[in-house]
Amino acid sequence: MVKLCKKAKTITKLIVVTQIIFYIWYSIYHMQAQPQNVLDNPNNNTIFMVWQFHESNAQVAAAFKKVCALVLNLNHSAKTRFPNARASVVMGISKNAWTLLQLMQPLPKELVHFEPIVGKKHTAVATPADLHFHIRSDAFSFCLDMATLIADCLRNVATCLDEVHGFRYWDGRSILGFVDGTENPQGAERAHFGLIGNEDAAYQNGSYLFVQKYIHNMQAWRALPIAEQEKVIGRSKQEDVEMADDEKPSNAHSALANVGDDKKIVRDNMPFGTTAQNQMGTYFIAYASTFSTVKEMLTRMFVGYPVGNYDRILDFSTATTGTLFFVPTLDMLDAFTN
């Protein structure tokens, strides 16, 4: 009987301890800030919008609070109205806007003004901006409505520097004809590489967002035989199979843009453009837990590795913009509305 009582007490203690551990885990899990939709895969339709405030005043601050509330509302509405359309809008804030609006201090550790990366032949340009919106949905009409509401909210206090309408090209290919984003992390790795961790606890589950708008010289690209195109990219065009290391040129895109399995980014690149004006391009968009990873990738591409061995894709693709943003969590957006 005594042994049974002792055994019962032991079991009871284990149950209590287990319950305590569960409640601690539950509390920590639900205390974590909820990220914006930065980890989703590219959608069929996308609108990218880049805005710059006119000047710092009470109207700008009020409009910023309003657009933060609007982004929250649009995402909630999308989940209710179109649960299967994977519709969302993600907002990023540049260092300039962060300072202008006098947001939280200190800033996210790697939120800086992007400086041009200058190689002997090609340059990753830096362009000014304050807010970036990444709007996506299976239905283009929803993207258009979201973009309209955002524009209505900001047009009196800011200028839209760029609006790009992206589309899914065949089986996720860039307009150059090669599958884009093959090296993207998958599963749990997306959060690991796409969201800030406890190394910057105040901004955990936020993300660094870097964007570039590339214009391709399609006539020059199409003039290349497919075998030569494959050497530029470092993969087969039809099957999307990576070349063996002893076959791949050292200046192939896949050789220079890959900075290691422990340094990845979440790409959401989309093709865009008009054919008659030969203005076809790729909107490069990277979400990352660290901007340093993106910067290392760009340096290898534009300066070269070793120096001078630049990414040959740049002979056909010109970067016309380049800006770094920080994507706050949904909880932070909510706090910004007050």
How would you describe this protein?
The protein has 338 residues and is of the alpha+beta class. The chain has ten helices and twelve strands. The chain has helices spanning 2-31, 58-81, 95-100, 140-154, 189-194, 218-223, 226-233, 253-256, 291-302, 330-336, and strands spanning 45-53, 88-93, 117-118, 123-124, 131-137, 158-167, 207-216, 266-267, 270-272, 281-288, 317-319, 323-327. The strands form three sheets. Strands 7, 8, 9, 10, 11 and 12 form a six-stranded antiparallel sheet that branches. Strands 2-5-1-6 form a four-stranded antiparallel sheet. A hairpin with a 4-residue loop joins strand 3 and strand 4 (123-124). Helix 2 (58-81) runs antiparallel to helix 4 (140-154) and helix 2 (58-81) packs across helix 10 (330-336). The longest helix has 30 residues, at 2-31. The radius of gyration is 23 Å and the shape is globular. The N and C termini lie far apart (63 Å). Residues 1-5 and 15-30 have low confidence and may be disordered.
